[in-house]
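Pasting as-is:
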Amino acid sequence: MAGAAPGQPRRVTRCDCMAGTRAQRLLEAARIPARYADCSLANFYKLDAPSGSLTNAHLKVDGFVRNYPNVEKGLLLVGDVGVGKTHLAVGIIRELIEQKGVDCLFVDYRELLKKIQNSYNASVQTTELEVLRPVFDAEVLVLDELGAVKPTEWVWDTVSLILNTRYNDKRTTIITTNFPNAPSLESQEITREQRAARKETLGDRIGERMRSRLQEMCQLVEMLGRDYRQRKQRPV
């Protein structure tokens, strides 16, 4: 509380330590896995591919954070294993929490589906809604590894519920996936040889209807490069 001359109203100013305490609470509530606790936008590695896509991805992400909340869409980070998608996603929410005090949540897609399935067990004292409520309510959600679970009707219905709820509530979602942002097999007319050589797509894993929804919700950020974990193990 700032001092004031006699007879003048006293002005209350926000203490930096209070802002730091709030940021710490938000970081803890964000549930960032310990493996990624040190990830930030500042320490994102830039051992880039010839295309420069990792540098471009970093610039897009940096611009997203700088402009938030004045953004129209979330982000869909697409790329092979090890190119740094989760690193950037964690870096985004760290910046939003520390610089702007935004309520963020990190969720692993596979773990979320397991928790929902476990909630159906009568011996578990948690309901499906209790598992999903933080996912629905977070101002910014990171949904990591979308499509990593073998698709079934139940998986598709669950993905649909999560994405549509956040879309309708106009909440920002950041998604990472290893699967290319391309249509499902059923929606394409291709030859048998093309089918045999074809890699699975995001449309295959979450359904074409939900892939289409993602185009409305998220800006595509493609990341091309070699697996960083393998690069680290090689002598420079």
